[in-house]
Amino acid sequence: MRYLSEDQIRPLLSYEALIPAVQQALIDLSSGKIRQPLRSILHVPEHQGIFALMPAVAGDLMSTKLVTVYEANAGIPTHQAVIQLLSARTGEPLLAMDGRLITEMRTAAVSAVALELLTPPGAKTLAILGSGVQARSHLHALRRVRTFRDIRVWSRTPDHARRFASEHGIQACDTAEYAAHGADVVVSVSSTHEPLVRGAWLGPQTLVCAVSAVGPNRRELDDAAMAAPVIVESREAAFRESGDILDSGAAVHAELGELLAGTRPLPPTGHHIIFKSLGVAATDLASAALVWLQCQAQS
After folding, report:
1. What structural domains does the chain harbor?
2. Phi, psi (5° rounding) for residue 157?
3. What's the sign of the alpha-carbon dihedral 243, 248, 254, 259?
4. Does the global pTM surpass 0.90?
5. HEC profile of the chain
6. For the chain, how far is it from start to end, CA to CA, in angstroms?
7. Using CA atoms, how far apart are residues 151 and 126, in angstroms rounded to an integer?
8. What is the CA 265 to chain-centroid distance, rounded?
9. Given pLDDT bands bounded at 50, 70 and 90, which one contains residue 44?
10. What is the pLDDT of residues 114-160, one digit of tens each?
11. Smallest Cα–Cα separation from 278: which of 20, 26, 64, 6?
């Protein structure tokens, strides 16, 4: 069975193909065409690690992602993964692949889908809170669906923010509040366990893409920020895995796939919107399927 490394996967994936693929996967997840259980999580406290299993099945394909999160890693990625793609008709393993890049790109692609649906075409100001892997991937993905006039970045490590800003031709900010003030879109991708984004910073039309805090004991948004229409990938996952939702008692307005399919109404205007992203196996499967199709085309 063939195994693809990250270097082999990189030329096979583009946001131009990935964004519509994950959009359809979210629609199919909300309609029941893609089936996935809640991710199974095993904690490795002696090494400050998390090991998770994320399976899904759709049509003739199924996949499982084995993903680890080791926040204390230095010199190697904190998030690592392997994805196994299989035939749903026979159970036959088809292709194994490194999952780190797929996880990076599909997360940003999902945010791009949310942004394109939930912000007006005139959205011009983007604030990125964080300067790591997801900051970079979100900048690339979101620029494909909106043309931003003003992009700001903040990091807990000012040197990192300045380096990121210099590399991408954007503005570095000294505080998260300054970066978020007046922004049409705020992307929260700074590793955090406590609320980082404050509702008092947000304008009436701001979309917040909250990506950082995954787990029932983690927050990245304060209660004022959560007092808004909340959009999620999966209600089931949100009510088990989001401390922002569980602690604030916020109601979920809709799944993103329901809004895309038109089975639930868009949130009312005049208030900021929270897209709380946790990552779902359905979008991993859609991404792995793209890689598989590219391999088939090249063989």
Report:
1. 3-102+282-298 (3.30.1780.10), 107-280 (3.40.50.720)
2. -105, 105
3. negative
4. yes
5. CCEECHHHHHHHCCHHHHHHHHHHHHHHHHHCCCECCCCEEEEEHHHCEEEEEEEEEECCEEEEEEEEEECCCCCCCCEEEEEEEEECCCCCEEEEEECHHHHHHHHHHHHHHHHHHHCCCCCCEEEEECCCHHHHHHHHHHCCCCCCCEEEEECCCHHHHHHHHHHHCCEECCCHHHHHCCCCEEEECCCCCCCCECHHHCCCCCEEEECCCCECCCCCECHHHHCCCEEECCHHHHHHHEHHHHHHCCCCCEEHHHHHHCCCCCCCCCCCEEEECCCCHHHHHHHHHHHHHHHHHHC
6. 14
7. 5
8. 22
9. very high
10. 999 999 999 999 999 999 999 999 999 999 999 999 999 999 999 99
11. 26
Dihedral sign for Cα 170, 175, 176, 179, please: negative
Yes or no: say if 231 and 259 are a contact pair by the CB < 8 Å rule: yes
**CA distance linking residue 142 with residue 195, whole number of Å:** 23
CA distances from 198 to 144, 174, 178, 269 (A): 27, 16, 12, 20
3-state per-residue secondary structure call for 113-124 = HHHHHHCCCCCC
The pLDDT, as a whole number, for residue 299 is: 75
